[in-house]
Amino acid sequence: MSIPDPSGPPGASGTSKTLHHGLQVLELLVTHPQGLSLTEIAEGIGVHRTVAHRLVRTLEAHHLCRRDRFKRISLGTGLVRLAEPVEQDLRTLARPVLEELTDAAEASAHLVVRENAEQVRMLMIVEPRQARMHVAFRSGQLDPIGRGSAGLAMLAARPAVAGEREEVARARERGYAVSTGEIAPGITGISAVVPTGRDAAETSIGLSLFEAPDPDRLGRLVVAAAHRLGALLK
Description:
alpha+beta; disordered N terminus; six-stranded antiparallel beta sheet; Arc Repressor Mutant, subunit A; WH-like_DNA-bd_sf; two-stranded antiparallel sheet; 8 strands; WH_DNA-bd_sf
């Protein structure tokens, strides 16, 4: 359960050992959205339980982690506040790209970000101005990463793994993911990962519509939009 240390040994010249361990706690909790016990955290970052206790208490004071009634520790709401400026910049850059996509496809366009190892979050949806009917979703909605085109596109951006869904492999081949009825009955989603040059796929852009008579054309529109946004984010 331990996490890799990409920054070298704690206490290296010019670094803070305590801050290093505190960030390790947060990184560990990201990979365990169901929460961890204090002992599991101590073992995960390789420190004594007393040190882990002080780290968690400090993070709790800043609302960066929290304990449930079973004393399991998970990420706190303070992280949302810290992330808001970054997400606001992302929304600002994405809006004109989404508006262009929704006009071209005459369907609702969405921006989805990875929330944790198991979930994705709808960050923004732009509805078409001309279509007679369109799909509407609530911003902030959380969905499993393994269901729906947005999460499937993120999974497809990773190397293949044993037992993965056929839809993930197909998305990897095509460059975009397609799903029907996985997030809402009768709704088709078409999504592609936004290329940012980072190792992990954290953002996808896509369409939600009632019918997709030509998914290849829509897929090409989505991929082109994803690349436009990726160029803005680099």
